[in-house]
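Let's do one together. I've listed all components of the complex below, 266 residues spread over four lines.
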Amino acid sequence: MRKKPAPRPTDAELAILRVLWKLGASTVREVHEVLNKTRPTGYTTALKLMQIMHEKGLISRDESARAHVYRTSLPEGQTQQSLVRDLLDRAFGGSAQQLVMRALQAKKTSPEELAEIRQLIEELEAKNREDSK
Amino acid sequence: MRKKPAPRPTDAELAILRVLWKLGASTVREVHEVLNKTRPTGYTTALKLMQIMHEKGLISRDESARAHVYRTSLPEGQTQQSLVRDLLDRAFGGSAQQLVMRALQAKKTSPEELAEIRQLIEELEAKNREDSK
DNA sequence: AACTATATACGAAGATATTCGTAGTTGTCA
DNA sequence: TGACAACTACGAATATCTTCGTATATAGTT
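Okay, and this is what the predicted structure of the assembly comes out as:
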């Protein structure tokens, strides 16, 4: 008896998740106020979406107060990981290398960020050498 | 009077694009035969999808033969780039660094691939130093 | 010429995603 | 307490995605 994995969030759902990760546990109103700035929609639209996300298990809620308080079910990094893995499979035949290449070409990356990435890679390479001993 | 950019392909559409990139220009039957192995569906499903993709501008077709021959409108790399950029914006706040990190964690990458990525990064870093002179 | 195999076109069903209006409930405050 | 503001629940309209059945056309074969 295993629990179903959370389904891939849709575009609108991901927008809400991003707000919740940023703000932490929040009410519908708080989420709506943030979203409304960049993408004007009605309050009940946000409400309905969050109710659906709750049904799907993407978010959980605390109903003890009149205004329910919602929080994400999974940490940001874990969801990002899933999304990347999904894109990897759907568009890159599973090749992380190709995806990384495209990502670095798709957007200018600051020298500091490049250095961090290089460091991560060097760590992975060191780990490989370690393992093969 | 500018042409509309090709919309983001849906899951089923991307699966078809992948076959077309792999095989090159192909008929519906050829595409369907490949897809049918991994995801059994009817022939007319593939046909309909490809007709819609043609309307959207995702693929073009040569109607001179009885069996139309379809080809992708954009090269694989360009579409991959768009998809990565899209995910970057929707889930990573535009941070390529974060996305790369997640990609490398999401999937084991071979030492050879890691080396290639490292090389790309070193090239980008060299280019940065060059530019800042 | 009739039959068969293989095409395309098209409509439509069913599922999912997104949007919002309306109804009804609850807390606040003058 | 009565009016108002804010909240949830719910139904439904609209759009999009995915699937397939049916109608029709065309090429090849006997």
